[in-house]
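Input:
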Amino acid sequence: MNAAKMHIKYKLILPLVFLLSGIMLYPLIFSAWLSLQDYRLTRINDVQFVGFENFGLIATDSSFLNAMGNTIIFVLSAVTFELVLGLSLALLVQKLVIFRGAIRSILLAPMFITPIAVGLMFRFLLNSEIGIIPFYLLKFGVSIDWFGPELALFSIVLIDVWQWTPFMLLMFLAGLEALPKTPFEAARVDGAGPWLTFISITLPMLRPVIVVAIIIRALDAFKVFEYVFAITRGGPGNSTETIMYYIYQTGFRFFRMGEAAAASILLIIFILLLVILLVNLSRPKVTK
Amino acid sequence: MGQVTFKNVSKSFGSTNIIDGMNLEVHNSEFLVLLGPSGCGKSTTLRLLAGLETVSSGTISINGRDVTELEPRERDIAMVFQNYALYPTMTVAQNLGFGLKAKQIPPKLIKEKVNEIAYLLGLTHLLNRKPNALSGGQQQRVAIGRAIVRKPKVFLFDEPLSNLDANLRLEMRAEIMKLHREIGATTIFVTHDQEEAMAMADRIVIMDNGSIEQIGTPTEIYFQPKTFMVAGFIGNPSMNFIKGKISNKMEISMPIGRIKINALLNLGEDIEVGIRPEKIKLADSKSKSTEIKVTVLVTYVELLGPRAVVKMKHESGQELTSVIEHDEIESYKVGTEINISLASQALHFFPKN
Amino acid sequence: MIVSFENRLLQFIGIMAIFMAIIVVLFPFFWIFLESVKPPSLGGRPDIWRFELSWENWSEVLLNSSVPLNIMNSFFIAFITVVISLICGAPAAYAFSRFRGFQGARYSILAAEMMPPAILILPLFLILYKLELIDSRIGVVTAHLTFVIPVITWFLIGFFDEVPKDLEDQAMIDGYTRFQAFYKVILPVVRPGLGAAAVFGFVLSWNDLFYSLLLTGAGSRTLPVAIASFWTFRGIELGKMAVAILIAVIPVLILSYFIQKHLIKGIGGSGVKY
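Output:
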């Protein structure tokens, strides 16, 4: 019986293990190997082992550092906006008595659609010649070049906020619904106002959900590619070049696969460190 | 048909022993109740017999056939779970017939048998409903029906009545016993409710910490508890215990007095002396050598309808609880001292381990 | 109940804020729709609100472009990806949920889910190149499996965790093997969860640009890649782009409406705290 039971538990996971080894584990190892080679798509028969040279090249490459910097600014500002907006909207929507389901469905819509469509929609809406938003802003005397050198990264952040605030909303609505009612009733009996209730009851109880939402969203925001690809292609200059776009460029426009692999490995290490940091920061402190 | 034997059965998870060297013989057609506090291993015993857990050592056999290594489906048993475990996606009829389907019985025959069982349990009008459209009692009936439709050698019940309200519980208890009389299959019933155990069992197995404390008929368990644990666990309010020492041959000294008994004891040994609350009587004027007369202070009287529970305290600090009839209540006034008598034949003695 | 003026004001501000949010969400869709039904000659004119309704863009895109082929490709790829993911993911998720010793595996699934595509695309590209699977739908399926399988498995672990173990115990006592108990009793119970996970996986595959962009060619191009190529600064392609965007977006919005309530459980998973 024991042997048979062991058997089935491994039988059940066998297809998954087999498939993931083929399509994830093997490519990962391949990627690590690749990062140590001078591997160019243009010279596929002339691959040379170069050790950690690629890492050296990347680490001193100003455009890699620029891409990293852009990405970090992007992730920080996008996630912050989305967190604040999502939480506020969740609190408002939760209080609604009528149309709550319908309004929730509308507000969640952006997170389900393909990011490239979002990117193109906003490229169209914000375009300084044919976009409706600059057109009407101009009527009020406001002239903004949304995709100019100063604002381009910020505009990309705004687009991300449009698409992904709904994710935060989804998480927080669920989190709020799951909270027990009695502490809120107790607070009302104790005479606490809405602000005090929010700070001292809602926020602490919602904390685990907030942390999970931030981690998921931040990791996802690191992968930002579509908006950049759809709108700016990294420009003007390289002011909106993100790390994903950098890897795409290096590997598939300049055909330097080895360096791109090294960059992707640096990215994954960075993300890993970030997750460890976030998880540690979010652990409730034990008071003695 | 359905003799069950546990031989030296042990079960451990990691380093914790859940069941420790259990030996148990369940007779054919017997209604056996496994009783004990939570965590005593009674449910695990049942699951070992069902084949849902594997034994760490020892053997289990049903009707002389060693089933230790067999899958649940090969053991010819049926089980009713505490939360009924009805298949939520199937109708009542499909739930009842699912076990028969596994045996590849022709659909027509399955239908016949299902109808028969449904009639027996009064479920006929519910056959096409899904479980979540049934009341707790109805779900319970379906779970029982699903067990008996297969005519297994052994029925296992894992606290099946604990999710029902009090009235329904009594009703289902009677129904299960009636079914057992009619079908006559060996039944093993796990509960933590001693009243349920007393009412239903042919024999009760009292378990504690993974081993058997005592096996006996309800009468034996109540009147001749073999261990301190059984004595304390069975009965409500529970037995009074008084610490004593063997001070002399055939004499025990306790804080509340001495008593002579007709048994040979080891001098100097510590002992627990127990007496059931209902055996504590008011002392009368006649004095006998086979009783202790004690003066105690009445500290608390709690009326429970026809009877009352009285808490008393001896000057040594020893507390005693007694159960009295309502018409005696005048004699027990809180704050007064009364004389009570403990008859030696009502005392139980448990050597201290 | 007495509501103070201050409370009413707060309430009003709240409702206005929600109203604003709804407009911000809906306006881009609305404008894109308008663009799609403008006569092509009026495309890209933000000042024009009144015009003759024209289905020319729609008929151009649906009858006279590669978009129908792209839809077929996207659908085929998403469908096959989801089917393979369910076949491999469901039994494994069940095992992870029920048997001891798989705690580490749960975290591996989560880690796989978080894996940035940048690290997998390079080796996948080279492997598929060697296998001559660039510009094939099966190549894209391979790439999409790397993110759909972890998500679906993760979803299903959460759903299996919620099914009481007694159910399969009962089925095994009723005469079935563990595997029969899994597919005859447990799978039907989690069917709503399976459906939600499948829809979510489908949407993820349908929406992907990155892998498809690099692994497809003319024959296997998916809808997102096709949309991306509509924006050319040369011609008046805006109307057609609007049509293609709507075609990519509308089915997903309809599908996702039905799985919203399952999403939370899926994303949060169960049994694993951050």
